[in-house]
From TrEMBL:
Name used for this protein in its record: DUF1772-domain-containing protein
Primary site of residence: membrane
Record key words, sorted: Membrane, Transmembrane, Transmembrane helix
Similarity comment: family membership: Belongs to the anthrone oxygenase family.
Localization, UniProt: Membrane
Length: 160
């Protein structure tokens, strides 16, 4: 495939991917996970595990594809190199945020979900509810990063 065609495809991907990932992340924070707050850990932790594993299967490759598209545009459009490089980094930031900020809570929720004794204790002391609430707030940050990336990509695309 010639570079001009790749650049066209990269532009077609660089704008909608971050918006799609923002909506996907926002939906879980707004509509799915909060519904599990008042459930016992025996019910909420398996739901969270599903949200997390299925979400990772969408968000991680999507973020990487969005970053790769923006990186190609940074390479192929020297006059917009800085903005597209910024967008590429912004597409990866939610993955970094997950690993550095969210991972401790995620791993604790997954750990609780594997042990009935931990589930009973986490239900009685509201630990799972607190962890889920924290996850929701932290996930809003990921959605915000994707929105910012999408807006910047849209603006960069409108310039040319």
């Amino acid at each position: 495939m010639d570079p001009i065609t790749i650049t066209r495809y990269a532009r077609l991907l660089a704008v909608p991917i971050p918006f799609a990932l923002a909506g996907y992340s926002f939906a879980f924070s707004q509509n799915a996970v909060p519904l599990t707050y008042d459930l016992p850990a025996e019910q909420s932790t398996p739901i969270f595990r599903g949200v997390y594993t299925q979400g990772a299967a969408v968000v991680a490759p999507g973020g990487i594809l969005g970053a790769a598209s923006a990186a190609w545009l940074a390479y192929s459009l020297p006059e917009q190199q800085r903005v597209w490089a910024t967008i590429a980094v912004m597409n990866l930031m939610p993955l970094v945020w997950t690993g550095l900020v969210m991972n401790t809570g995620i791993q604790r929720l997954l750990e609780i979900g594997k042990d009935k004794g931990k589930m009973a204790k986490a239900t009685s002391n509201l630990e799972v509810r607190q962890l889920l609430g924290r996850w929701v707030l932290q996930n809003y940050v990921r959605a915000g990063l994707y929105v910012a990336s999408g807006v910047l990509a849209w603006r960069a695309t409108m310039v040319v």
